[in-house]
């Protein structure tokens, strides 16, 4: 009996040591700004991967008297992945790759869920940063593989520096979405209703490129205007605090902007036909003229 107990203890101790080594080794492969740290989180396990940035999870209640599990729909904050097909549009390139990567990363595992300041989006999904039981930041993993775009979501910016870094690494290596023709920037002068789907079709997440001509102002917003008059970029007054030193720094520069492109309703024939609202400077990259992809200077 004592021999069996000793063997069992030795086995458990060995497993614990290798588990700790695995966590330490993985932690060394991602920057410290991407680690979970000591922030509040809850434990969960996956029930279903819906797409590359949406999960259905079961929250494990940490109470000794109850093993009750709460089912929650979660949106991975800070990223946006390719969309699947619908009645009018085909599946976007790398949708299946992002879906498969997410499934492989969290399959049959418990993981940590860090809930952000504003807990839900307009669809009622819980906004969260996800970490595997070995400490891997899931959003960082998808971004670094070139399977997701970084989409800052103020004021929930806990890991924004991490996500920006991961996206930049993927851009420099021209991985997956960053080398695919569909995801290359649309030139501002080429914007028209044929290239931009209706907003409700969830296909208006785009990258557009243009040269900034001026910075305008309205009652509650600042507007980045371009030499081509077909589109403009709106920044709400409340979000100007994130743009340091100011949005004037973009005047005269050729930039690439990432976000949701929407039709702009105006009675004036000379007004831009489209606009993109952005909330954070990381949605802008100044153009590196040596490639077709923008990078920070």
Automatic annotation (TrEMBL):
Pfam family, one: SNase
One MF term in the entry's GO annotations: endonuclease activity
SMART domains in UniProt: SNc (SM00318)
UniProt domain TNase-like: residue ranges: 40-180
PROSITE patterns linked to this entry: PROKAR_LIPOPROTEIN, TNASE_3
Database matches in InterPro entries: SNase_OB-fold_sf, Staphylococal_nuclease_OB-fold
Record has Cell cycle as a keyword: no
Gene3D superfamilies: 2.40.50.90
Keywords: Endonuclease, Hydrolase, Nuclease
Name this protein carries in UniProt: TNase-like domain-containing protein
């Amino acid at each position: 009996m004592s021999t069996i107990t000793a063997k069992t203890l030795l086995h458990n101790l060995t497993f614990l040591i290798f588990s700790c080594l695995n966590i330490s080794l993985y932690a060394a492969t991602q920057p410290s700004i991407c680690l979970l740290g000591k922030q509040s989180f809850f434990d969960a396990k996956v029930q279903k991967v819906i797409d590359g940035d949406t999960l259905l999870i079961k929250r494990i209640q940490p109470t000794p008297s109850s093993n009750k599990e709460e089912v929650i729909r979660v949106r991975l904050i800070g990223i946006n992945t390719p969309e699947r097909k619908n009645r009018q549009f085909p599946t976007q390139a790398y949708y299946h790759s992002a879906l498969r990567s997410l499934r492989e990363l969290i399959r049959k595992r418990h993981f940590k869920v860090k809930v952000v300041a504003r807990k839900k989006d307009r669809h009622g999904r819980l906004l969260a940063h996800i970490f595997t039981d070995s400490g891997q930041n899931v959003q960082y993993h998808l971004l670094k593989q070139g399977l997701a775009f970084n989409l800052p979501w103020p004021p929930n910016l806990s890991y924004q520096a991490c996500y920006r870094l991961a996206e930049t690494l993927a851009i420099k290596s021209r991985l997956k979405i960053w080398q695919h023709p569909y995801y290359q920037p649309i030139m501002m002068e080429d914007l028209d209703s044929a290239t931009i789907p209706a907003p409700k079709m969830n296909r208006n997440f785009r990258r557009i490129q243009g040269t900034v001509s001026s910075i305008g102002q309205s009652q509650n917003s600042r507007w980045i205007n371009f030499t081509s008059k077909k589109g403009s970029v709106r920044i709400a007054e409340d979000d100007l605090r994130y743009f340091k030193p100011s949005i004037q720094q973009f005047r005269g520069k050729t930039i690439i902007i990432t976000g949701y492109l929407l039709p702009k309703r105006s009675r004036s024939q000379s007004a831009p036909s489209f606009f993109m609202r952005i909330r954070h400077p990381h949605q802008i990259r100044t153009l590196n003229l040596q490639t077709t992809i923008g990078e920070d200077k």
